[in-house]
Amino acid sequence: MDNIFIVGGAAIDITGKPESICRERDSNLGSVRIRVGGVGHNIAKRLTSLDYHVELVTAIGSGFHGKMVRESCENSNVSLKYTYVGTEHTGTYIGVFDEDGDMLVGISDMAVLDNLTPKYLSPLLPMINESRMCVIDGNLSPQALQYLCDNVTAPLFYDPVSCAKSRRIGDRLNKCYAIKPSRLEAGFLSGKSCDTLRGIYRASDWFLDQGIERVFITLGDEGLYWADKNGNGVISIGYDETLDVSDGRDAMGAAIIDGCIRGCSTEACAHLGHDASTIRLDKAE
């Protein structure tokens, strides 16, 4: 079985969605959900459903929320063998979505991941470098991201997570094999306006010029943009109305990673991401 290391976030997600148009600065009727999430955790669960052995290197607390993370990973056969467990509270994310399921605002508290220091990660390098791919996300500290970029020899797949965290990787983008930002994150990283497809092309060219081999930019309801040195394109995507957008994007990321490992073309990887983004994990299982 192929091994994949994921070094990134696992958190308790608290999300709210209004029944109708969301009125700011007011209490809205709607639904609230509490579950285990985090980009690293979500991608890990998808990859184990694709028959990979996944080591999730994250950081959690020792309380009830940490127990929720451990149980979620255990139920999905995600290994936490090398995860840091401390006395801090487990990472927490609060997200408010509009009536269509698109994010209005999110607040992320992932300070516990600062415990994944270069000193903590150093003993894991030999195992990470023997894996088929190492997935890293922007929840990590700048020091951890840059250490991994400088020392990991396995292909690196980078998910920036958010604009606020995307630049933590510093000037190490050239160390990454593939990247999957949103259009906002792509614009923030590249310094190019991504309001139009022409802007997306410019940002994509910038990523390729940095040395990244495969670029995947999520465009919301406009689809998924893909590019490599041989070509580019856009695939239209329609998210399942029962699946929130963050679920769809992490499912997309896992499918793209699977395609990269199996040697699929960049365009084929994008199509795999499209197909996975509309399938609920409980259906996939």
Produce a short descriptive summary:
By secondary structure, the chain is of the alpha/beta class.
Protein architecture, described:
There is one protein chain. By secondary structure, this protein is an alpha/beta fold. The protein has one domain (3-23, 31-284): UDP-N-acetylmuramoyl-L-alanine:D-glutamate ligase (3-Layer(aba) Sandwich), CATH 3.40.1190. Helix content is 35%, strand content 25%. The chain is built from eleven helices and 14 strands. The strands form three sheets. It has an eight-stranded mixed β-sheet, sandwiched between helices. The chain has a four-stranded mixed β-sheet with strand order 3-2-7-8.
Structural class: alpha/beta
Q: Helical percent range? A: 25-40%
Our count of helices gives 11
Helix and strand string, N-terminal first?
EEEHEEHEEEHHEHEHEHHEEEHHH
What is the CATH homology-level superfamily?
Ribokinase
Assign the CATH topology: UDP-N-acetylmuramoyl-L-alanine:D-glutamate ligase
| Number of beta strands | 14
Supply the CATH architecture.
3-Layer(aba) Sandwich
For the record, what CATH class applies?
Alpha Beta
Assembly state of the chains shown: single chain
The largest pleated sheet is described as: 8 strands, mixed
Distance between the termini: 18 Å
Radius of gyration, taken over Cα atoms and rounded to an integer in Å: 18 Å
Q: Strands across the major sheet, in which order?
A: 4-1-9-10-11-12-13-14
Instruction: Give the low-pLDDT segments.
Output: 281-285
Quote the average pLDDT.
Answer: 92
Shape: globular
Which range does the strand content fall in? 15-25%
